[in-house]
Amino acid sequence: MNAREVNFDGLVGPTHNYAGLSRGNVASTSHRGAVSNPRAAALQGLAKMKFLADLGLPQAVLPPHPRPAVGFLRELGFGGADAEVLAAAARRAPRLLAAAASASSMWAANAATVTPSGDAADGRVHFTPANLAAKLHRSLEPLQTARILRALFPDPARFVIHAPVPGGQAMGDEGAANHTRLAPSHGAPGVHLFVHGHAALARATGGPRKFPSRQAREASEAVARAHALDAGAVLHARLNPAAIDAGVFHHDVIAVGNGHVLLHHEQAYADTRAVVTELRRRFARRHPHAELAVIPVPARRVTLRDAVRSYLFNSQLVTTAPGRMALIAPADCRAVPAVRDFARELVESGGTPIQEVHYLDLRQSMRNGGGPACLRLRVVLTDAELAAVPAGVRLTGETHARLAAWVRRHYRDRLAPRDLADPQLLAESQRALDELTRLLGLGSIYPFQQG
Ligand code: SUG
């Protein structure tokens, strides 16, 4: 199959703020109450998209979700006009207002799990929106995510959008952040590594003590089944509970894979050696003539703590030419000497396909625990499938310029927690998103556009 990986990046929404909503995500809780800059956040995200597009990689955007989610607050008993709902929630339940206002849909790696048509028995591209049941503010995303996916991937002969995994928090599913596909090239049959933190139906033993696990093994299994993947090409691995306790709330905080390469921390999994052995076995069965390049990062070089504060493993690993890959890392990696040195040596050694490291400033998103890889959803598409996606969401030099101008026109450069109740913020956000759907050529994708 001739296919390419397209990165769909979540466009940062106008309410980007620091509410400390994600226990277990160290950056989120430690920046609670800080003043954010939504305009800078959105421009940093767009600059990353442009950087990847300039490397010659297909790049597209996912529009943000409408926030504050007034409908959610109404469901919780706040009534009256929108301004009254916001004011009452701010007074009586400010944490619910914060959850309703989060711009968390920007972290598109949590939007859905995606598998390419070449891997599915029915020859279609499969999407399962993540239920994100582990965090209240994120549990508001799946419905809107499904609406957006249906608008972007409309042809049912080519694309299937499944329902999110049911079952609530016990069956938590966080999407592509806990799924890594490995293959000799993007178009070749893949081996799928699904990573979970707990089992919904087993008695919890030896789990994390400090922080919650977000992904259930049974949820990953449900996604693999729904996507019609060959069971022999699927491996389920358990995240190391000690890593979760160190702030590794998703697999993509402690490992990154691309093509035939897996870069992982030595302490990523509950039993790292067994995971690597099994992965090699499944890969070799599928591709007897190709080699899986596993690059372990020893704890004596990079501690779990340094991995979490630098977000090294949340780099994007991209193929820039046959056999050549680049690591798109957060600039924060340069501030941690052990990580900076490791990345330099990795490239200089020449022993792996990773031949370049680029550091990008994503500070606004990083303060909420979102690095380069969190901000994008990878979708492997054939040329015909890509042609079925509305052209307006593709990032070109021209769309980048138009989107950057749109951000400058609509976004604030300062947002403090008390601003979330400002009815003007809601009005501004709706105006911005309404204009965005026209800019991207998408028609109505938001409930507020329906009435
Ligand atoms: O779910 N942060 C997100 C970060 C998601 C990162 N994604 C991946 N690793 N793929 C989360 O914890 C913080 C919002 C706040 O605190 O205001 C937040 O939701």
> What overall geometry do the principal axes of the alpha carbons give?
globular
Small molecules (ligands, ions, cofactors) in the structure? N~2~-(3-carboxypropanoyl)-L-arginine
Strand content: 15-25%
Question: Level of helix content?
Answer: 25-40%
Q: How is the largest sheet built, in terms of strand order? A: 2-1-15
Order of helices and strands: EHHEHHHEEHEEEHEHEEHEHEEHEHEHHH
Tell me the structural class.
alpha/beta
Number of strands: 15
Please, how many helices?
A: 15
Instruction: Give the CA-CA distance, first to last residue.
Output: 43 Å
Mean pLDDT: 97
Would you identify the regions where 5 or more consecutive residues have pLDDT less than 50?
none
Q: Over all CA atoms, what is the radius of gyration? A: 21 Å
Describe the protein's architecture and organization.
The chain has helices spanning 26-30, 38-54, 70-75, 82-92, 94-101, 142-152, 217-226, 241-245, 272-286, 304-310, 337-349, 363-366, 383-387, 397-410, 423-439; strands at 3-10, 59-62, 112-115, 125-129, 159-161, 179-182, 191-196, 234-238, 255-258, 261-265, 293-297, 316-321, 324-330, 354-360, 376-382. With 451 residues, it is of the alpha/beta class. The strands form five sheets. The chain has a three-stranded mixed sheet. Helix 2 packs antiparallel against helix 14 (397-410). It is globular and about 65 Å long. The model has no long low-confidence stretch (mean pLDDT 97). Bound molecules: N~2~-(3-carboxypropanoyl)-L-arginine. The site of N~2~-(3-carboxypropanoyl)-L-arginine (SUG) has 22 residues, from loops.
